[in-house]
Design goal:
alpha+beta; five-stranded antiparallel sheet; disordered C terminus; single chain; globular
């Protein structure tokens, strides 16, 4: 695969630092991948605190202005790098519901991979459970 470095790290870090800041257990992050209509979708989902409409708007506008707030800096950076690397039609799509969680769809061209499409079968999706309490 030919993916930019630090593609997932800022997204997972946001989930842990912001989404799970008020949770002590039952925290999860799911990272999955699928190939659909010549587009590669990496989905990063969590059951954290979610983002408000204002936070989502800040992220969506960050391509035109400097992002405000720590939460959107990592997202904006990843999105801008994807736009530069693959083109403006690719990048992050963010859906979030306050109190329920966030789903980030990393949309890339299928040319970002040089492996067989059969690699992206549903059974290869992995879910990673995280606990903020290291003793569990």
């Amino acid at each position: 695969m030919n993916l930019p470095v630090f593609l997932f790290q800022p997204l997972v870090e946001n989930s842990v630092e912001h989404g799970f800041s008020n949770k002590e257990n039952e925290c999860y992050i799911s990272i999955s991948c699928q190939l659909e209509n010549e587009l590669l979708h990496f989905l990063v989902a969590d059951n954290g605190s979610g983002m408000s409409q204002e936070q989502l708007k800040t992220f969506q506008c960050s391509g035109k202005t400097s992002p405000k707030g720590h939460h959107s800096i990592g997202l904006a950076n990843v999105n801008q790098r994807l736009h530069s690397y693959y083109g403006e039609e690719y990048g992050l799509l963010v859906e979030s519901i306050p109190g329920e969680g966030t789903i980030i769809d990393i949309v890339l061209p299928s040319s970002a991979i040089n492996i067989e499409p059969s690699f992206f079968q549903p059974e290869l999706s992995k879910t990673i459970s995280l606990s903020q309490n290291p003793s569990q």
